[in-house]
Structure formats: structure tokens, C-alpha cells
Amino acid sequence: MLRASAGSARVGKRRGNVGNEGLGKKAKAKVVKQEDAGAAEGAEEASPSAGGKKRKLDDSELKEREKRTMFVGNVPVAWTEKRLRGFLRVACGTTYEGQLKPIWFRSLPLESRWNTSKELRKAGRIKQAYMEGAEAAKNAYVVLRGPEDVPTVVKLVNNLQADTGHILRADGVGESAVLKKFDRKRSVFLGSLPRRVTEDDIRWVLWPAGQVDAVRIVRNKITQECQGFAFARFQERWSVKEALKLWPKIHGKEIRITKVEDSSAEDKPGKDQARPEDHPAAKRIVLKQQRRERQKAKKKKEWLANAKTSGLRPGKSKKVKKKLKQSNRKKAGR
């Protein structure tokens, strides 16, 4: 009996170990699944429901989270959430010691062979078939403690050197975004850019003109390749004039640099929109025309006076000559 009890105890113990091991695998798989799904919601917002699925945020919760979310662009594609969080923690120091989670990535640069369809893009993200080199960069979103912390952290992180080929670009999201519209008086337009151009390439070619504090490359939403043009903003306005004198090349291709034109109808009247008469520019134009007419009348008066004193008969206009000819013909016909 003792042996049987001992044997059954060993079997029960063995079965218990198997059950605990299976439970540990399930818990581990659940944690891995949550990590792979990405931190799309906050820690208190991502709590699973009774069915084990994540609860979707409503509109009010999404707006509240957007106000305390920071955008970080030009992040190296090899960086993980842990590495980015550690970099941001060092950059903030004691100025900000609040939360830096959740973090999720967007605009992942996949290899060209994975960009032909939606299914292949999904498979490429699973296999992490990202582009290599300096052009391989992605965007990140970081949720902070509160909306009042976003401007402080953005100021600390913006224009920090991540590595040799990436300078981070930080900004708010939604209404708190500052770089949504570049100041055209401090910005230039760059055209004829190669598809694999990077922010570091643009900063390098514009360096002789002055310090660049922001770069925006217009990319294809699917392939994440440059569509041929970008915008760069300088710290000082005088740098724009110096940049227009440059004729640089990127990857052996000559690019063009022009001013950023204001296309808004409020600032610049169109063909169908007349300038107000009380506008300072309109007043200057009217005064200039009046001054020219006075000068023209004065010169004509002086010429007539000089012609009379010299005994010359001033010439008549074509209309006057035509009328004289017609009157002479009528007299001759009579």
C-alpha cells in the first residue's frame, strides 16, 4: 500500500507538473501575442475583456490619447520599442520622468518585392523584410503622461542624433502638431530628388546655406520611397537666399531648389479675386500711375513751349490729320 501510494503520488506529482507547464506556455503565448499586436492602446486602455480580446477605444478616448501622443520620425528601422524608450529616457533626463508607453511604429520600409500587394506587405512585416542602409527609417508614436508634457519632450527630442545616418524629428499629433505647416519664409522646396533620398542627404547638401532644423520628405504611402520632392526649413530666414544659390547633387542626380510659394487664396488674390482698394499695395500702385501721368504731361508741356519759342510748328496727331483730309475733300467736292 505504501508503494502504491508512493507511486500514485509520483504520478500525481508528474501530472501536476505537466499541467503547470502547459499553463505556463499558455500564459507565455498570451504575453507574446500582446507584444506582437503592438501597443496601440495605453496600459489602462489595453486591458483585455472577458473574451480575451482588447477593448476598442471610443472617440473620446482616442481624442484624449491623441493630445498626449508624441510623433518621432526618422527612427532607425532596427530600433525596437525598448531601445527607443531607453534613448528617450536618457534624452529627457530629470526634466521628464513620466510614462513613455505605449510605443508603436508606422511607415515601415519594406523591400520592394514585398510591396506588390496587401498580403505580401503583411508577410513582409511578419518576416521583418525591411530595407537596409541609411534610407531604412520608420516613424514612432509615444504616449506621454499628459498633454502638457508633449511640448517639453518634443523640444528635448527634436533634432537629436540617433546614429550616423538618422536625426530624429519630434512633433505633436493632431492639434498639437507644430510642423504640420512649414514657415515658407524659412523654408525651401527641393525637386528632382532620387527615390532613396534620406533626411541626412538633404541636411548635408543644404549645410553650406545654414542650419536646417526640419525636413519633410513626401513619400509613397505603400513603398515609403520618395516621390521626388521635399521641404526643408532653416533656423534663420537669410539661409533661404543662400540656399537658392546652390546647385547640389544627391546620389549623382542634380536637384533644384526654389522658394516655397504661398498658394492660399487668403494671402494671395487669384484671377477672380480682386485686391481691395484700401489695400496698401493698391494705394501704392495708384499713386505710382498718377506720378507717371504728371511727369508725362509736364514733359509734353515743356516740349510745346520749346517748339513755339523756336518757331517750329508742333506735329498734329493722326486723328487730326485724318479729319483735315476729310474736310478738304468735302470742300473740293463742292
Characterise this structure.
By secondary structure, the chain is α+β, with helices and mostly antiparallel strands. Among the domains are: about 60-175, RRM (RNA recognition motif) domain (Alpha-Beta Plaits); about 185-260, RRM (RNA recognition motif) domain (Alpha-Beta Plaits, 2-Layer Sandwich), CATH 3.30.70.330. Helices cover about 40% and strands about 15% of the residues. The chain has helices at about 1-35, 60-65, 80-90, 120-125, 150-155, 200-205, 240-245, 280-310, 320-334; strands at about 70-75, 105, 135-145, 160-165, 165, 170, 185-190, 210-220, 225-235, 250, 255, 255-260. The strands form 4 sheets. Strands 2-3-1-6 form a 4-stranded antiparallel β-sheet. The protein is elongated and about 110 Å long. The termini are far apart. Mean pLDDT is about 80; it is low at about 1-50.
Describe the structure using short key phrases.
334 residues; alpha+beta; Alpha-Beta Plaits; four-stranded antiparallel β-sheet; 17% strand; elongated; disordered N terminus
Give a quick rundown of the structure:
With 334 residues, this protein is of the alpha+beta class. The chain has 9 helices and 12 strands. A 4-stranded antiparallel beta sheet has the order 2-3-1-6. The protein has a 4-stranded antiparallel beta sheet with strand order 8-9-7-12.
